[in-house]
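Possible race condition, two jobs.
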Amino acid sequence: ENGESITALLPVRDFDAPGNCVFMATAQGTVKKTTLSAFANVRSTGIRAVTLDEGDRLVGVDLTHGGNEVMLLSSGGKAIRFHEEEVRDMGRAAAGVRGITVGEGHRVIALIVVREGMVLTISENGYGKRTDIAEFPTKGRGGQGVIALQVSERNGAMVAALQVGERDQLVMVSRDGKLLRTRVGSISVVGRNTQGVKVMRLRDDDALLEVARVAYVEGMEQEEPVADADTLPEPGT
């Protein structure tokens, strides 16, 4: 419908697999978990997956299997990690429960179902880092979380957070349409409560908009070369 956009694509082989759920997160910090089988019969026009409050929107969707931990990360540089069992299964029309309390002017930007790999965080001014998942403590849902990336005048707001492997690659796109593809391994590994390092050079009037992970597959090294974070082109090149 007018004003709608796609949030996530989830490949599913078996809707009736026991324990499988669809886990959702909204910009205002609400989370919801619904049994995957509830989506087995979807009409061409779609079916209701979650009821949203006015002004809220869905920002992350993933599959969980009953024993997962999840993380929510906000534009204010905060992250909260909790076990999915803290969120009960709900019907498709339900609105969900509080997952994280976001500060005024901030919003949830990412949902991560914790798996192997490090947490990559990147700010709108092109600064980022990788952080060991173990640095994010598991606590109850609903709190304000811990610092994942320092939000400062230098950094700007946090715009992307995702879990990555050492041999993955990233595609970063700026508001002005500039694109950079780089190796995850070229981005520094530092602690949670830090500002990170420059990962993409931007003009003063530009800002990083989207970051996508390109998962490693055998033979990727033979593809066209990509830039490393320490050899980035100057803005406009």
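Job #2 (started ~2 s after job #1):
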Amino acid sequence: FDARSTGMGNAGVAAGTIANAAFFNPAMLAAQRPGDRVSLLLPVVGVRVSDPSGLVDDIEAFQSAYDAADTSAANAALTAANGKAVLADINAGMVVSFAGKRMGGALSVNSYTRNSVSLTQGTDTVTFDDSYVNFVGIQSTEVGYSFAAGAGNDGSRFAWGLTPKYVQIKTNDYSELIKNDPTLSDNADNQTEDSGLNLDAGLVYGATRGWRAGVVARNLVSGDYRTVNNRVITLDPQYRA
């Protein structure tokens, strides 16, 4: 994601520019304005955090009650936090791209991280030696080359695009007692690593009066990635129109 597309409801599939088409829909590289020829975008950075149920507030309430030896309030905070989750997304990348009359290409690097923080409440209501904060995350780093071609009206009517890419997947999975005030860790003992090839594909059609429709399929090769704690994180193909 980037600021422009996020501000338009993630509309990059049919409204991507020469600078970000490789991230949203490679077909858009062949459907650019006549003056768009070369672009260097360095870097792209985005951060998004979602805590809809107030888990962070519950954990802070537990820490305050635990430090004050108020077991009743600490147990109430744990009960309130049980089953909630915080999601954090971090995106960083760069792209060098070009566009011609009926074709385009881009070399891109994109790293996307999603971390989930949740809580498991135990039965020990005195010492809290079995209540844990769980950190589970996956990082996907992609290096791809996008190419696109179009036909009619200098490529602006109908275009297709492909992005073959090398993908490295890292998982991070560990739990820590909530009473120890846990934080996110990059300890290698908590991580696994895998890599392989994948493919994105897209189509775009530019109709009259400025209307444009697009569809993209990302990560057409699905995969399962097992963490050190035997959780399975599945990377499925994603489709957007």
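The CA atoms of residues 12 and 24 lie 5 Å apart.
Logs attached separately.
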